[in-house]
Design a protein that fits this description.
The protein is α/β, with parallel strands linked by helices. The chain contains 15 helices and eleven strands. It has a domain at 399-551: 3-Layer(aba) Sandwich (Rossmann fold), CATH 3.40.50.880. Helices cover 29% and strands 12% of the residues.
Length: 556
């Protein structure tokens, strides 16, 4: 299966793949921007190809900037078939349900993370597995009858649509656990070859035109990427079951076949190998009663034409803060679009999803606010579709930064006590101080709020947060340190609060909250006398909430 962390895609037919890729690529004359869509050609395509709108909303929401690889769900995107031994079929959509819960960054937090540590996501996954905190996902399917293809008001073969779980619940089939890191990243990860045409007995394809194209394009990609056809012989790609076939020679051949009769049918080798089928060798077989007829046309089915109902369903289902994140992301993207024609076309499409969304984006990019178009609107919602507002089920691998001072050894010692209180939840405490010393994990010069899921100011470290810690104050005798950028401890605390994280203070460390004008009455702000179990309980509860959304301003 495709396995994206967004359940829909930009296009409905594989013939548009080259156009999509060309549109989002950098400009041909200057190769700007790299790996980004905040430019004219991308939004020109999006505004002219409304099938992209649903995926755009998911990407502009928290799903586009997850906290880690461990905190996402996965989706097959396409509708597949399941086929029983007696030929009965069902339509299914595959889901990977993360058992860690969903968690995402906010936009500026994601930008800072990418700048400070480009390997953040890979490092997080590696360290979690290395520590024995194995991430898990349940595999499930939504099961539907063949005759239900158009039952829900859209075509089940349309890869830009979801099936709300209120209509068809997910049936859990099993669980995947990532319990080992690669021994050699190139051999075991870089050389992996994914191919949606690789399916097991009992799984079959549908007539989804994007899926049909992917069956070709992924294989074609691997042929070019690996320089030949024998990539399936690499250890990481090799099937678990023994394979007997007529494949021979080619670049990168790793086997020495002993059968000189590499063809079927044959008599020279007693007819072997023979094509496996439904009855011989338990091979692949398609739905036996499936038929297809009609005129061959280069056109989309009329059942694929509604590109606005489901984006509105997504929009309606979000909490206000996540709606604001989408608005802000689209303001950022489209403010980089130079063409007024493209900006206007974007607002036209957004208005077919929500007049509220279109008006808020238009205000920021100099486009006249459109009038509502009620012919497109509905008030339907679906549950658990956002990236925010749901508590985490596991805290494994989350990090708490304890801001301490080497001049106050007792502040550093609080790290061990807090770690002891949080270790049962799988939470790591990172002790930060001015310089490396015993029990100090990293320095302020190498630290930022984006590295932590919660920040705690230690009792005794409050002196690092006063006015004299800034070089903007009189330098002579000011107490500003040259060991780290001016004001870095307070910056970490303020950014953590601004990014919606849990912030806390022990003892006199609460003076730091006052220096940052952070009220201890706010949700997700905690104080305690010591780093005992009661204080740790507050921290764990804050981490489960993950983002305190009341800290983010929402358009009025």
């Amino acid at each position: 299966i495709v396995g994206n962390n967004i359940p829909v895609f930009f296009i409905q037919d594989a013939i548009l793949f080259p156009d999509l890729i060309h549109a989002v690529k950098p400009r041909g004359d200057n190769e700007i921007p790299q790996a980004a869509t905040a430019h004219d050609s991308a939004w020109d395509f999006f505004s002219q190809q409304p099938s992209s709108l649903h995926t755009l909303l998911w990407a502009m929401a928290g799903h586009g900037i997850p906290r880690s690889f461990r905190h996402v769900d996965g989706f097959g995107v396409h509708t597949f078939r399941l086929v029983t031994d007696d030929g009965k079929t069902k339509l299914v959509k595959f889901h990977w349900k993360g058992l860690q819960g969903k968690a995402s960054f906010v936009w500026e937090e994601a930008q800072q993370t990418a700048g400070k540590n480009a390997d953040f996501m890979r490092q997080d996954l590696f360290e979690s597995i290395e520590a024995g905190r194995f991430p898990e996902w349940e595999l499930g399917v939504q099961i539907m009858e063949e005759e239900d293809q158009l039952r829900f008001g859209f075509d089940l073969l349309d890869p830009t649509k979801i099936v709300p779980e209120e209509l068809v619940p997910v049936t859990i089939l099993g669980k995947m656990q990532l319990n080992r890191n690669p021994m050699n990243y190139f051999a075991e990860t870089e050389q992996v070859m994914f191919q949606p045409g690789h399916i097991v007995r009992g799984v079959d394809f549908t007539e989804d035109p994007l899926l049909q194209g992917r069956l070709f394009s992924y294989l074609d990609t691997q042929l070019n990427r690996h320089g030949g056809p024998n990539f399936e012989q690499l250890p990481i790609n090799r099937p678990r079951a023994p394979i007997h076939n007529n494949n021979r020679d080619g670049a990168g051949q790793m086997f020495i076949p002993l059968n000189p009769n590499a063809y079927s049918p044959n008599t020279e080798n007693k007819g072997s190998p023979k094509q496996a089928n439904q009855t011989v060798g338990k091979g692949f077989f398609t739905a036996p009663e499936r038929t297809a007829s009609g005129k061959l046309q280069r056109t989309l089915s009329t059942t694929f034409e509604d590109n606005w109902t489901q984006p509105r369903l997504f929009w309606n289902s979000l909490v206000d803060a996540e709606k604001q994140f989408i608005v802000d992301a689209m303001r950022f993207e489209t403010s980089n679009v130079k063409s007024s024609v493209v900006r206007n076309n974007v607002i036209i499409q957004l208005n077919r999803i929500s007049n509220d969304l279109a008006t808020r984006v238009a205000k920021a990019i100099g486009v006249e606010a459109p009038k509502p178009d009620d012919s497109f609107y509905h008030d339907n919602t679906t549950a658990h579709i956002g990236a925010f507002g749901q508590k985490l089920t596991k805290l494994d691998g989350l990090k708490v930064g304890l801001l301490a001072s080497v001049d106050k050894p007792a502040s550093i010692a609080q790290g061990a006590k807090l770690q002891s209180a949080l270790s049962s939840a799988g939470v790591d405490v990172v002790v930060v101080a001015e310089r490396m010393a015993d029990d100090v994990d990293q320095t302020y010069s190498a630290s930022d709020a984006v590295q932590f899921d919660a920040v705690v100011v230690a009792d005794g470290a409050e002196g690092l947060f006063g006015a004299k810690s800034f070089t903007s104050q009189p330098t002579k005798g000011s107490g500003a340190s040259t060991l780290y950028p001016a004001g870095r401890p307070l910056d970490i605390l303020l950014d953590a609060f601004r990014f919606g994280k849990t912030v806390a203070a022990l003892g006199k460390g609460s003076d730091a909250l006052q220096s940052g004008q952070i009220s201890s009455d706010r949700d997700g702000v905690y104080t305690g006398k010591d780093a005992g179990d009661a204080f740790a309980k507050d921290i764990k509860e804050g981490l489960r909430t993950f983002k305190f959304l009341d800290r983010f301003a929402v358009d009025q």
